[in-house]
Amino acid sequence: MNVGLLIGLLLLLLAFVTAAAEIAAQATARDAGFLSFLDVLRILAPEALAAVKSTVQSYIHPALWDPVMTGAMALPGWLLFGVPGALIAWGFRPRSEDSDDDMDDGPYNTYDDIVAAADEADAEEWDLEETRPDSTADLPGYLPPTERDKKK
Questions:
Q1: Residue 74 belongs to a domain
Q2: Distance between CA 5 and CA 90 in Å, rounded?
Q3: Which listed site, 18, 67, 126, 135, has its alpha carbon 20 to 30 Å from 54?
């Protein structure tokens, strides 16, 4: 399994976990509707949120927390992790050996290919039997309209 697909699947798993956490936070806060990932962390894990905030501001840069991370965490968590996870998993999906992204390897690619195939089919001799009956009387269960009216 390639690393890109694994990362995409882990992000999708994280999206499902954050969706469940959002439902739990909605129940705790008695609030309906979408909650941002930041609000979910404030409701369910305020200590962890404070630890992450102080770590980012102390060791990386204070500007990274306020406009960048809080802006990204304003989205719901399932959206924040689900969209990139789905795109990464789809981009790194396993493909079969014989599949190409080109549409040129179909059975008939152009009008000229279709005409050439039709000419080749016409060149072959077809031995077809005559399947039409000689008259309608030969058809099983069929009575012409005049005979049907006479029977009634």
A1: yes
A2: 8
A3: 18
- What pTM, to 2 d.p., does this model score? 0.59
Q: Which two tokens stand for residue 4?
A: 């890109």
Distance CA 138, CA 30 (A): 80
* Residue of 94, 130, 109 lying closest to 6 (CA atoms): 94
For the chain, count helices (H), then strands (E). 8, 0
Residue numbers of the domain that contains 21? 3-91
Tokens found for residue 6:
């694994």
**Any domain includes 69:** yes
Q: Would residue 65 count as lying in a domain?
A: yes
What's the structural domain count of the chain?
1
115 occurs within a structural domain: no
Nearest to 25 by CA among 42, 47, 12, 13: 42
Q: What is the pLDDT of residues 7-60, one digit of tens each?
A: 999 999 999 999 999 999 998 888 778 899 999 999 999 999 999 999 999 999
